[in-house]
């Protein structure tokens, strides 16, 4: 008789996840070029209305470069990880991390994206980081592109809208695979690849105001095609260059529920899920799903493919599927309902059964189990939860302690559901909590939206000592890892 699975496998990869532009700082040091993230200003909530501050225009970029603005750019200073990586990695080691997810800032390696030669100082920086991780037996999980397109590619080619960028990306991938082949065996090609349809600037370094004659969807799906081809070519290269490598895709999973059992709602939710899973379908199955033909036709979207593209996609699917999971989404066709806020979720309806974070993201641990089971059934590939966590305001007490039971509660409930999914038979490689150390928020560029087990003394404008201190969640997560998720 087959024995039921009881918990996480012994080599389960526990850890935390970051992105270069949200932690490193040092935006103009050691030969780094500017990246798209360096141009995103901090806009106080009172001035930005909703919680989104991700897109910029071509005109704004030129103004910034001409020194015409006083704006603050938090992704330029991050939390100084570029200079504190040894201290920070020591804290990750104390937490017991088995894996640390980070991204390479492409513009550190190729300052303009299309340079003939890489920047040695940039290559050295990441090599040092990998050496430091190795000291503690922490596996790096590296994202090649996490919302950090070299700005020069944006200005010269309009980012991923241009097919030429595929070659620059594969050259970059080849360079880092070759250089780090002895250090890194887990790679992700693009962070949240589907974000390109929500924010073409963030996901693809594209200025849609330069293409006024085209719809945002037309631009985004064409650019996504270029990224799919680039991702497949990078997967091919990784398999050729690095022994035992595992390459994954990365999706911002938006598990969508119907609000009612009206068949129209069921269909609407299914369509919503398909549009989200389209990205993992291409990555994992190596071909465009048929349901997109109708979507493209009805929305006047034409994706130009070159001869050979389909073979490239077919021949080089990813080895595993990774994703971020923060919340679920509800949709309905049935009249006006109260809406909810949140990253990328326009028009989503408030789920009356769920609580919301301070930023309006609806907290749904069971949705993670649903997501894992769905992925498993759809792809039958290993899965990796590479982002999950709670962005919250933290208070430092007079004695310096930081009590964050809300964060522990959020993480505990999600890990519990992850364990249930494992018991359901899902093949799960690991879990990297988002922002193990406080970092600059992607969507709002705030510092006050904190995810960390480690507090960083810095405010939204970049004032502070940058001192690191442990929150209550630090010891809690340390014990979760030490007991392989048995004690939550
Ligand atoms: C994901 C991104 O969308 O969510 C991260 O991959 C991001 O870069 C994270 O930081 C949390 O979002 P936010 O907007 O709270 O920082």
Written description of the protein model:
The structure is a single chain. This protein has 488 residues and is α/β, with parallel strands linked by helices. 39% of the residues lie in helices and 12% in strands. The protein contains 17 helices and 14 strands. An eight-stranded parallel beta barrel has the order 1-2-3-4-5-7-11-12, surrounded by four helices. Strands 6-8 form a two-stranded parallel sheet. Strands 9-10 form a two-stranded antiparallel ribbon. α16 (405-423) links the parallel β11 and β12. α11 packs across α14 and α15 (365-379) packs parallel to α16. The protein starts with 12 loop residues before the first strand and ends in a 6-residue tail after the last helix. The relative contact order is 0.14. The model has no long low-confidence stretch (mean pLDDT 95). The chain binds 6-O-phosphono-beta-D-glucopyranose. The site of 6-O-phosphono-beta-D-glucopyranose has 15 residues, from loops. 6-O-phosphono-beta-D-glucopyranose binds next to loops.
The largest sheet has its strands arranged as 1-2-3-4-5-7-11-12
Number of helices: 17
The average pLDDT value, as a whole number, equals 95
Task: List bound small molecules.
Answer: 6-O-phosphono-beta-D-glucopyranose
Give the helix level as a range of percent: 25-40%
* Low-confidence runs: none
Rg from alpha-carbon coordinates: 21 Å
Number of extended strands: 14
Please report which band the strand proportion falls in: under 5%, 5-15%, 15-25%, 25-35%, 35-45% or over 45%: 5-15%
Cα shape: globular
Alpha-beta classification: alpha/beta
Largest sheet data: 8 strands, parallel, barrel
Q: Tell me the distance between the termini.
A: 30 Å
């Amino acid at each position: 008789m087959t024995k039921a699975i009881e918990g996480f496998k012994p080599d389960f990869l526990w850890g935390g996840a970051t992105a270069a532009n949200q932690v490193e700082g040092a935006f103009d040091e050691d030969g780094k070029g500017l990246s798209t993230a360096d141009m995103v200003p901090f806009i106080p909530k009172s001035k930005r209305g909703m919680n989104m501050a991700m897109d910029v225009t071509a005109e704004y970029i030129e103004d910034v470069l001409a020194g015409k603005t006083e704006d603050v750019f938090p992704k330029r200073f991050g939390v100084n990880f570029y200079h504190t990586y040894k201290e920070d990695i020591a804290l990750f080691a104390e937490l017991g991390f088995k894996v640390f997810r980070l991204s390479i800032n492409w513009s550190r390696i190729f300052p303009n994206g299309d340079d003939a030669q890489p920047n040695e100082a940039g290559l050295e920086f990441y090599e040092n980081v990998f050496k430091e991780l190795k000291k503690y037996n922490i596996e790096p999980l590296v994202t090649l592109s996490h919302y950090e397109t070299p700005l020069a590619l944006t200005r010269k080619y309009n980012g991923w809208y241009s097919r030429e960028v595929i070659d620059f990306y594969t050259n970059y991938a080849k360079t880092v695979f070759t250089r780090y082949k002895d250090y890194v065996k887990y790679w992700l090609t693009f962070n949240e690849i589907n974000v390109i349809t929500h924010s073409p600037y963030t996901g693809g370094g594209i200025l849609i105001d330069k293409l006024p004659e085209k719809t945002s969807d037309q631009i985004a799906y064409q650019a996504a095609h270029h990224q799919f081809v680039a991702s497949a070519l990078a997967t091919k290269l990784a398999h050729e260059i690095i022994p035992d490598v595992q390459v994954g895709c990365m999706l911002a999973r938006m598990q969508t529920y119907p609000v009612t059992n009206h068949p129209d709602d069921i269909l609407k939710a299914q369509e919503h899920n398909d549009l989200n899973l389209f990205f993992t379908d291409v990555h994992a199955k190596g071909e465009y799903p048929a349901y997109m033909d109708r979507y493209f036709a009805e929305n006047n979207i034409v994706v130009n493919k070159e001869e050979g593209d389909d073979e490239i996609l077919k021949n080089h699917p990813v080895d595993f599927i990774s994703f971020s999971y923060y919340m679920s989404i509800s949709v309905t066709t049935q009249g006006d309902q109260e809406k909810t806020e949140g990253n990328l979720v326009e028009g989503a309806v408030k789920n009356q059964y769920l609580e919301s974070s301070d930023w309006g993201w609806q907290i749904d641990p069971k949705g993670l189990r649903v997501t894992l089971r769905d992925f498993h059934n759809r792809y039958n590939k290993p899965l990796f939860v590479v982002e999950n966590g709670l962005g919250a305001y933290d208070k430092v007490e007079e004695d310096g302690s930081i009590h964050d039971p809300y964060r522990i509660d959020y993480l505990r409930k999600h890990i519990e559901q992850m364990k249930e999914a494992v018991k359901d038979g899902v093949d799960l490689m690991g879990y990297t909590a988002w922002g193990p150390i406080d970092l600059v928020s992607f969507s709002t560029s705030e510092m006050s939206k904190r995810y960390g087990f480690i507090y960083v003394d810095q405010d939204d404008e970049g004032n502070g000592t940058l001192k690191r201190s442990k929150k209550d969640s630090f010891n809690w997560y340390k014990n979760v890892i030490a007991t392989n998720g048995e004690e939550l």
